[in-house]
């Protein structure tokens, strides 16, 4: 292994400590930050993630409210609960865990969350703010990826960055953040003829597809920064990313592991957004 490991667990821990200080300051003024997490159905992966998020809140002094519903919950009932949380002054962030059962329209759910409490950064208003460079909540995963890239000390200005994947939650906002940092950005996706042709020119590659071995050693420029957003299981049921870690780490300059890379940072940035929302509310800015 020649690449240096980017330690997402360590950075997330540091960020949680900073969040804890800001949370304590708010709590001392009687304004403890609060995050509502809504889980619908019993998807096992979602259960694990949500438990992590609630634990993170506890260690950072953020109050969390966990609403668990049966998979049969009606869309109308979910929207009504969100409205209630929108109007609850003790709640500063609202997260509805995805995926939702098929009879519930996720876009409708997201648009019902007040943009002031949209700590996932999934609302069209948040997406629009990012697009035009205005203040708004950044989606947690791309936000965390930018923090991970920062730790390498690489300046993105004038560099080539390739994002593999074009989801609304990761790929698209990731490309926008890299563009804002003055990188030259390429988005590759399922219709891209030869992804390696692009990634071989890239100083930074962010892989966010959701499939194993999307990025292999022969596709990477020596010394490149490689950020692995993937969260997959291999044949042995072990958690693995989109990057062939063993191969790519012989070529890259920096690489994030899975687990212990982007995942913990996604959760850390959720706390940052929640604190940000609570501070804005406390300052009467909203
Ligand atoms: N409204 C909403 N917001 C989300 O942010 C959201 C979502 N829905 N639905 C599901 C995805 C997935 N996601 C993860 C976050 C952290 C880890 C994470 O912390 N992973 C650990 C390992 C966890 C394990 O052991 O399973 C790691 O990479 O080290 C994983 C996955 C957030 N998501």
From TrEMBL:
Pathway the protein contributes to: One-carbon metabolism; tetrahydrofolate interconversion
Binding residue positions for NADP(+): 165-167
Residue intervals of the Tetrahydrofolate dehydrogenase/cyclohydrolase NAD(P)-binding domain: 139-281
GO cellular component, one term: cytosol
Reaction catalysis annotation: (6R)-5,10-methylene-5,6,7,8-tetrahydrofolate + NADP(+) = (6R)-5,10-methenyltetrahydrofolate + NADPH; (6R)-5,10-methenyltetrahydrofolate + H2O = (6R)-10-formyltetrahydrofolate + H(+)
Entry keyword Amino-acid biosynthesis: yes
Keyword Oxidoreductase: yes
Superkingdom: Bacteria
Keywords assigned: Amino-acid biosynthesis, Histidine biosynthesis, Hydrolase, Methionine biosynthesis, Multifunctional enzyme, NADP, One-carbon metabolism, Oxidoreductase, Purine biosynthesis
InterPro entries in alphabetical order: Aminoacid_DH-like_N_sf (IPR046346), NAD(P)-bd_dom_sf (IPR036291), THF_DH/CycHdrlase (IPR000672), THF_DH/CycHdrlase_cat_dom (IPR020630), THF_DH/CycHdrlase_NAD-bd_dom (IPR020631)
Record domain Tetrahydrofolate dehydrogenase/cyclohydrolase catalytic: where: 6-120
EC number(s) stated in the UniProt entry for this protein: 1.5.1.5, 3.5.4.9
Subunit text: Homodimer.
Function of the protein: Catalyzes the oxidation of 5,10-methylenetetrahydrofolate to 5,10-methenyltetrahydrofolate and then the hydrolysis of 5,10-methenyltetrahydrofolate to 10-formyltetrahydrofolate.
Family (UniProt): Belongs to the tetrahydrofolate dehydrogenase/cyclohydrolase family.
Name listed for the protein in its UniProt record: Bifunctional protein FolD
């Amino acid at each position: 292994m020649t690449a240096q490991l980017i330690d997402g667990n360590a950075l997330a821990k540091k960020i949680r400590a900073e969040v804890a200080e800001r949370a304590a300051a708010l709590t001392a003024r009687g304004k403890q930050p609060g995050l509502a997490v809504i889980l619908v159905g019993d998807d096992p992966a979602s259960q694990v993630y949500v438990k992590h998020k609630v634990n993170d809140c506890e260690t950072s002094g953020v109050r969390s409210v966990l609403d668990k519903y049966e998979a049969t919950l009606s869309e109308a009932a979910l929207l009504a609960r969100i409205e209630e949380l929108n109007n609850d002054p003790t709640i500063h962030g609202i997260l509805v865990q995805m995926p939702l059962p098929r009879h519930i329209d996720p876009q409708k759910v997201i648009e019902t969350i007040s943009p002031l409490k949209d700590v996932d950064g999934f609302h069209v208003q948040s997406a629009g703010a990012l697009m035009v460079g205005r203040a708004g909540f950044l989606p947690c995963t791309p936000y965390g990826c930018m923090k991970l890239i920062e730790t390498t000390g690489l300046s993105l200005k004038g560099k080539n960055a390739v994002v593999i994947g074009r989801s609304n939650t990761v790929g698209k906002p990731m490309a926008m953040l890299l563009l804002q940092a003055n990188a030259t950005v390429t988005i590759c996706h399922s219709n891209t003829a030869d992804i390696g042709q692009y990634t071989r020119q890239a100083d930074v590659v962010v892989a966010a597809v959701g499939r194993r071995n999307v990025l292999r050693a022969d596709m990477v420029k020596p010394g490149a920064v490689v950020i692995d957003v993937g969260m997959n299981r291999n044949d042995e049921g072990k958690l693995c990313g989109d990057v062939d870690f063993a191969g790519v780490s012989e070529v890259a300059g920096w690489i994030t592991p899975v687990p212990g890379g982007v995942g913990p940072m996604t959760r850390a940035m959720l706390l940052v957004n929640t604190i940000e929302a609570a501070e804005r509310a406390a300052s009467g800015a909203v």
